[in-house]
Amino acid sequence: MRLRFQLKQTTPTDSRRGLGLRPRRGLLCLWSLFILIAITLPSNPARAQVWEYLGRPSNHVTAIAVGSRDTIFAAGVVLGEYSGGIYRTVNGGVSWDTLSSIEISYSDLRMHPTNPRILYAARYADSPPNGVMKTTDGGETWFAAGTGIYVDFETHTSVIEIDPEHPETLYVGTLGFLGGDIYKSTNGGMSWASIGTTGLWNGVITLAIDPISTNTLYAGTAAGEGLYKSSNGGAIWGPAFVGDPVQAVEVDPVEPNRIYLGLGDLAAGFRRSTDGGLTWEVTTTGMPPESNTWALTTNRATREIFALLGAVESDSGGIFRSTNLGSSWQRVGGIATQNRAHAVTVSRDYEALYLGMDSFGQDSAGIYRTSLIAGAVAPVVPVGGNVKLLQNYPNPFNPTTTIDYELPEDAQVSLKIYDVLGREVEILVNAFQVVGQHSVTIDARKFSSGVYFYRLETPKAINSKKMVLLR
Length: 471
Hints:
By secondary structure, the chain is mainly beta. The protein has strands at 22-24, 27-29, 52-53, 61-66, 72-76, 85-89, 97-98, 106-111, 119-123, 132-135, 143-144, 155-162, 170-176, 182-185, 193-194, 204-209, 217-221, 227-230, 238-241, 246-251, 259-263, 270-273, 281-282, 292-299, 304-310, 318-322, 330-331, 340-346, 352-358, 366-371, 388-389, 400-407, 411-419, 424-433, 436-443, 450-458, 461-469. The relative contact order is 0.13.
């Protein structure tokens, strides 16, 4: 065991989705700590997943950050005899290093979008250093990066988000018995300022950033305050959903007006908006009726959504997948029903799903991984007229590759390349083209190595595929 820093012992009093504690009109619902998430085999054996056990870094994993298939970070919380801390494996889970005191609780862990050696951890504690810890060397050393964030004996940092376009800009939510706040940093966490200007915060449980227009933010709060939205980087906030506690919020990577909500009250389930939060619909087909949504994550490569459900009845929780933009859901199986998941994330290359389990007396605590099946998701929108977008060849490639596509009719065509953050890298085609087969060759000598996506759009179709540039 290698301890990187020692911090004073603390006992957590509240948190967001990962710790299983739910604020309700300013009070902590401690009973919800014992709500179980059960993950059972699906009724259709063809959808069963094969899960790989990657070891037990903590008895209660609250967050996972994936740098590569071998390098994984995990945060844990102190609960009774359970240890907290920050952990790292560099060999795919064969062994784990302890990077912080196991007597410290952490509620969230975020990795820099382009530099996997930079991470931020939300420290769930009431003693210095407060708020946020940061590493710039892959976890070897950590330092306090929370100046300006107010915490006390009952108010703690609960969630961190990083602006994908401007990674020096970060947002933190706090949570407590008497409420919380939202803070913003524009210098990589060196200083923070409050931007929670609504005056209504009752504890910030979750945050989300529009990946295309990153000045648009969403904050999920407790009790009847629901979801708030800002379109100017947090300067002004307004209500976007009023009602149940919002445990999780996700923004679609292609159509940012598509917003997904995970609601914390029992049987509240899931909501979807297609107009940026103006109206909402219940889309829980395939989900158990007696459940709430603890966490959401999206595979940005395919727009596949994963929802982590909790429920009083052990057979009504679990992890569910939607391959049609949240219209319906299927249970993801392959993990024993006695396991409980509190953290879920998709890898940086969008090829694997990770779950963090707690034990509660079982021997199954730890990190689990399953591969995501390419092409398992429906087209990004209904594709009309048999528009065909083929996989680039060769793939992986260096430095050139070719994309072929076929148009069933004359149409205005847009073909663009995006990086893994959803940023436009190059416009390949922006022209009116005639019916038939078309081919484009890409010269990527000016690109960095990594994963890219190419997107074909016509008035009747949108489709995208992944390609990999290897130097």
